[in-house]
Amino acid sequence: MVLPTSVEEASRLLPTAEGGASAKLLAGGQDLLTELKEHLVEPDTLVNLKSVPGLDTIEWNEAGELTIGALVTLTDLEEEAGVVEKLPILSEAAASIASAQIRSVGTVGGNLNQRPRCWYYRAEHAPCLKKGGSECYAFEGRNKYNAILGGGPSYIVHPSDLAPALVALGAKVTLKSHSTSRQLLLEDFYTLPSDGDILTETRLKPDEVLTHVHIPKQRAGMRSTYLKFKERASYDFALSSVALCLWLDQGQITRTRIVLGGVAPKPWRTVKGEQAILGKRVDARTIEMAREACLDGAVTLSENGFKIPLTKGLLTRAFQKLA
Ligand SMILES: Cc1cc2nc3c(=O)[nH]c(=O)nc-3n(C[C@H](O)[C@H](O)[C@H](O)COP(=O)(O)OP(=O)(O)OC[C@H]3O[C@@H](n4cnc5c(N)ncnc54)[C@H](O)[C@@H]3O)c2cc1C
Questions:
Q1: pLDDT above 90 covers what percent of the chain?
Q2: Which of 48, 99, 234, 249 places its Cα 20 to 30 Å from the Cα of 110?
Q3: 19 C-alpha to center of ligand 1: Å?
Q4: Which contacts qualify for 143-146: CB closer than 8 Å, 24 or more apart?
């Protein structure tokens, strides 16, 4: 393991797009250590980001914008006073993740870059599409936890709870290498299996580090929530989740952001659902329109048909909570 003291040094230790060093970034280790134990990745070197100073702060500027360092723990994010007060969607999403122990070491950067949980991907013996094989075994196999939206040729779902909430907030991420720095909307950071490189879920280049998440100041009057359904009452990944931001003026919807989690290979923003209800009051009819529009195009596999009514139920609860 190496302990770089800057992002540039960390980046130089990583492979480039052409190949090179076999190295992986390590943050809290709550996903990567499992991947190592299961021999899903076998890097020669672990590049421990925790030795890089300046990546563990949460900062509000005078304009009301929020910058979150990649090494901020999920607990610190969940409990930050400004986040609790102004962005409940984010503190609720952080609080819904795993257990208190995992949240106390798991980081924001690690959460956004964690790998899929599909058991065919996690099983050592199965060379599925996500590991360079030629088949998505979930498609005709055990697919209760898999995608109903945006799937094909792989049907993984993105496991992060922070990602849908951050996409709903219009967050951007800073990606740095030793020679470059760029910002992307988090919505554009994630890719679908059909987008090109099926071995990854993001546009992060091999020698880049996600250093910060930036949340713009939200328009006045935003109400927001993150609702997640998990199979176990204790810690578990989302079978489905809804990240909802809603702006009302005299009872009418002036703006909304709806992002689904646990149902697609990336956080699934439903622009169609958002547009369908603009100008309407939040009543049973409007919620029904949102439910239909948000799930438009959903295609279920043999064991995950339940995700449609489940997600519709979460949407109803989220709208009722914020109205
Ligand atoms: C039992 C269990 C339950 C869990 N439940 C949930 C859940 O309900 N919801 C949820 O969202 N997650 C869940 N997780 C997944 C995950 O472990 C945590 O969300 C955690 O945030 C991962 O962060 P980390 O810092 O430990 O990441 P690490 O394990 O250190 O890293 C994860 C991946 O991200 C890469 N990486 C880390 N930091 C960066 C960076 N700054 N830039 C680029 N790449 C980076 C690493 O190379 C690695 O591939 C669970 C994990 C476990 C073990």
A1: 95
A2: 234
A3: 24
A4: 143/301, 143/302, 143/303, 143/304, 144/303, 144/304, 145/117, 145/118, 145/119, 145/237, 145/239, 145/304, 146/118, 146/301, 146/304
Which residue type occupies 124? Answer: E
Tokens 């935003």, residue located: 222
28 C-beta closer than 6 A to ligand 1: yes
Q: Would the CB of 32 count as within 6 Å of ligand 1?
A: yes
What pTM was estimated for this model as a whole? 0.98
What residues are paired with 210 via a beta bridge? 175
Residues 6+ apart with CB under 8 A from 167: 186, 187, 243, 257, 259, 267, 269
Q: Which of 93-102, 158-167, 230-239 has the lowest mean pLDDT?
A: 230-239
Residue 165 CA neighbour count, 13 Å, CB half? 30
**CA nearest neighbour of 257 among 125, 166, 153, 133:** 166
Q: Which CATH class is domain 227-322?
A: alpha beta
Q: Output the CA torsion sign for 49, 53, 57, 61.
A: negative
Report how far residue 23's alpha carbon sits from residue 312's, in angstroms, rounded to the nearest whole number.
42
CA of 113 from ligand 1 middle (Å) equals 7
What separation in angstroms does the CA of 241 have from each of 195, 228, 314, 315?
23, 4, 7, 9
**Could you give the CA distance from residue 140 to residue 135 in angstroms, rounded to a whole number?**
10
> What's the one-letter identity of residue 46?
L
Tokens coding 67: 């910058």
